Amino acid sequence: MMKIYEKPTRKDPNKRPISPRKRRWLISTLVIVLAVGGILYSLADRYLIRHVQVVVADENTATATTGSATNDSTSSSTTATEVNATSDDWNYSSDDMKVNIEKVQTGSGSDQITYYVADVQLTDASSLRTALADNSFGTNITENTSEIAAANNAIFAINGDYYGFRDDGVIIRNGTLYRDSPTRDALALFNDGTMKTYNENEISSSELLAEGATNTLSFGPILIQDGEIVSDFSSVKIDNNFGNRSIQDANPRTAIGMIAPNHYVFVVVDGRQDDSRGMTLAELADVMKGLGATEAYNLDGGGSSTMYFMGRVVNNPLGRNQERGVSDILYLTEGQGS
């Protein structure tokens, strides 16, 4: 039998072996790169990458993947003639609703505040609805308030609670329960035209739905409850998310209040600009109290604060007439009765 001999490998005299010190450095560098990459992906996944959990049907009804209870409410097309509607730049009146918007300016110089008040009276609570960006429920799904409003034939709209920035809270929209993770003080709108501020840990979503809740908003804080201003806003924080900070300083604001059943007041405050410094939470609560609200709730503010009416943005978002994308809106439309 023939024997096969392997030719011995000749070592390259110019190739030096990797020293233990350099090997440790390479391994450490690789570990750091992988760790940083993991952190960056985690942040992108949490705050940038779209995650669609439920696609909402065009008629603004959906069945949540969790099998939650729903209320059938199909939108219909209603013309201005059919509801005897008249309007101008600041007012809308029909058989079903009245909307009056007023621009208010107080103070002067660096203490000036510009805000917008919409007084809304409805004959049917179903005219007040919510809509989601891109007709989808999830995280990091955003559109401008005006875009969502136009897509839903809104007469009037404000930004909502930006639920998509968080992964907790109790989120009911147009009768569908999408998320059930009680966390904070919240707001519920009911089918009888009332609204109630409450603690998510004290009232279950099933109880809310049984009582006729059509929408819940999870941001806060509560401004007015049972006719009285909530006394302490000194250390309010809404989230524990990356970048969260206390929100009690003067900022752009959005808020909703109820004067009586089917009689609402919406306030949007400009801020962080030369002609409007914004409002503190205490100032916003005082404004709501002065408008006659018996319940009032603070929604997402800052760059999100936007008021839309009859095809135009009324206020000055971000101080440069530039909207910031949001995950949801509250809006008014005709023809939502069952």
Give the topology.
Elements: H1 20-47, E1 51-55, E2 86-87, E3 91-93, E4 97-106, E5 113-122, E6 128-132, E7 136-139, H2 145-151, E8 156-159, E9 169-173, E10 176-181, E11 185-190, E12 195-199, H3 205-210, E13 213-217, E14 222-225, E15 228-229, E16 253-260, E17 263-269, H4 281-290, E18 295-298, E19 307-309, E20 312-313, E21 328-332
Antiparallel strand pairs: 1-7, 2-3, 3-4, 4-5, 5-17, 6-21, 8-19, 8-21, 9-10, 11-12, 11-13, 14-15, 14-18, 16-17, 16-18, 19-20
Q: How would you summarize what this structure contains?
A:
With 338 residues, the protein is an alpha+beta fold. Helix content is 15%, strand content 31%.
Distance between the termini: 96 Å
Whole-angstrom Rg: 26 Å
Q: How much helicity do the residues have?
A: 10-25%
Quick one: biggest sheet?
9 strands, antiparallel
Q: What is the molecular shape? A: elongated
The number of helical runs is: 4
Lateral arrangement of strands in the main beta sheet: 2-3-4-5-17-16-18-14-15
- In terms of DSSP E residues, the strand content is 25-35%
Supply database-style keywords.
338 residues; alpha+beta; nine-stranded antiparallel sheet; five-stranded antiparallel sheet; 4 helices; 31% strand
What does this structure look like?
The structure is a single chain. The termini are far apart. The chain is of the alpha+beta class and 338 residues long. It has helices spanning 20-47, 145-151, 205-210, 281-290, and strands at residues 51-55, 86-87, 91-93, 97-106, 113-122, 128-132, 136-139, 156-159, 169-173, 176-181, 185-190, 195-199, 213-217, 222-225, 228-229, 253-260, 263-269, 295-298, 307-309, 312-313, 328-332. The relative contact order is 0.18. 15% of the residues lie in helices and 31% in strands. The protein contains 4 helices and 21 strands. The radius of gyration is 26 Å and the shape is elongated. Strand 2 (86-87) and strand 3 form a beta hairpin. The strands form 5 sheets. Strands 2-3-4-5-17-16-18-14-15 form a 9-stranded antiparallel sheet, with helices on one face. A 5-stranded antiparallel sheet has the order 6-21-8-19-20, covered by helices on one side.
